[in-house]
Amino acid sequence: MLTLLEAMACQVAIGCKFPSADVARVLRYFREYFEPVHHARECADIYPIVLMHGDESESELAGALIREHDDTKMLLHSLVLFWEPEDYLRPEERDAFADLVRTYSRRMRRHMQHEEEALFPAAVRVQTTEEAGQTEIDTERLDPGRARWKHWLTEAKELEAAHLK
């Protein structure tokens, strides 16, 4: 979805029509799935494990990622303002949208890289058997009534056909 958002921002930046409905679909993924399910699971389960059981550098990384998440969440809220415009954006709006997407994307990619390379391996290394089982239970608890991952995968495939060529 991040790649799709970047592709849409590139299209808008060069003066193409603003794909309002498709931007809204991507932003709904971040707002309705990524934040309240995916990231909530990390905050409820993974970060605390590393903070409690990791070494000093791992704990510092977890704290930094928690703070960084607050920044990306605010950027996402700012992006949501852009799902209403129709047709073409004024030049200053195009620039603002493209800049905001670039900033959000750059920070999210850096955040994900730190998680994949350091945080998740640390969590796996230090978690207890009970914590590992609880992570699975908590994932189910966070997800009731929300669109499942498969729904968002279908959305992404449809959007890829329109925006990634």
Structure description:
The protein has 165 residues and is mostly helical. It has one domain: nmb1532 protein domain like (Four Helix Bundle (Hemerythrin (Met), subunit A)), CATH 1.20.120. The protein is 82% helix and 0% strand. It contains 6 helices and no strands. Helix 1 packs antiparallel against helix 4 (91-126) and helix 2 crosses helix 6. The longest helix has 36 residues, at 91-126. The chain is elongated, with a radius of gyration of 18 Å. The two termini are 15 Å apart. The model is unreliable at 136-140 (pLDDT under 50).
Uncertain runs: 136-140
Query: What would the principal axes of the Cα set say about the shape?
Result: elongated
Structural class: mainly alpha
> Would you identify the CATH H-level superfamily?
nmb1532 protein domain like
CATH architecture: Up-down Bundle
CATH topology: Four Helix Bundle (Hemerythrin (Met), subunit A)
**Termini Cα gap:** 15 Å
Q: Mind telling me the C-alpha Rg? A: 18 Å
Largest sheet: none
Number of E-state strands: 0
> Percent helix among the residues?
over 70%
The percent range for strand residues is under 5%
Query: How many distinct folded domains?
Result: 1
**What is the typical, i.e. mean, pLDDT?**
86
